[in-house]
What does this fold into?
Amino acid sequence: MTETTLAGRVAIVTGGARGIGAAIARALVDAGASVVVADNGTAIDGNAPDPVVAENAAAQMGPRAAPFTTTLGSPEAATALVRATLDRFGALDIVVNNAAIIRDAFIFKAAPADWDAVIRTNLSAAYYLLGAATPVLRDHAKAGRGGIGDKPVYRWGRIVNIISSAAFYGNYGQTAYGASKGGLFGLTRNVAHDLARAGITCNAVAPFAHTRVTESIVPANDAQAAYKARALTVDPRHVGTLVAYLASEAAQSITGQLFGVRGRDVFLFSQPRPIAHAISTGRDFDPASLARAVEANFAGKFAELVTDLEAFNTDPIV
It folds into this structure.
């Protein structure tokens, strides 16, 4: 990435004032883009909003950054964000859905209101924003936005959704958070299909870095304590680099994918696909015959029930 890689591009980064969001916003600005830092400044649980957080973050990023401090939990707020972006910078090319809150609790103790708040912030808000932003991205694609000088017209339009390995590995007490991030990846895949003909890409990134989420981990054992200590050594700037790459022309052909980034280690996740079949020929399965078929065809292939903290509890490459 250079300071002209994304010259003239315009991005929205939700949750862009702190942690991973700020690293992403900074990377996009450094690559030449203008960025709207959409962040209401709440605590990690979604309470106590503070508009000064986004205002200060945008000021530190310079004249090509602007704050937006309205809570993004409704279609009206999403529409207002897109309108404010167009009014300030005249276009929209890149959308990064990063904003998230956590309200952890075991499923047998969780409060429905906390579930609703987490889903609204982490998943519904992303849906609302894409609903408001994608018509603009498609209009830009149809108009041939992206040609610079004598370069061929490039169909701009980039969406990056920040998810979590908790969606696929799971973790103790993170039913709401994990479900919201799993839903966000489902949104990623479907939006990638919807926008493929327009040349607009949509990918997901599972980051591992020092954030308020990792700071909030209360270790239940020595292994989790070791994981937290390792996570706190990983600078979120590496996530910003990956997102800036996915927003660039070099990533035009990449869509519907799930990446991970952990320091200087960038990896591509597999996605759920059938790995084994049990087929009954001649007649339907009954419970007994199905039990025998499962043992014969699936034994040894089941995913191990480990948390994401256990799966990634190795020294990061920093």
Observations:
- The chain has one domain: 10-271.
- Residues 28 and 244 are 6 Å apart (CA to CA).
- The first strand starts at residue 10 and ends at 14.
- Strands lie at 10-14, 34-38, 65-68, 94-97, 158-162, 201-208, 258-262, 265-268.
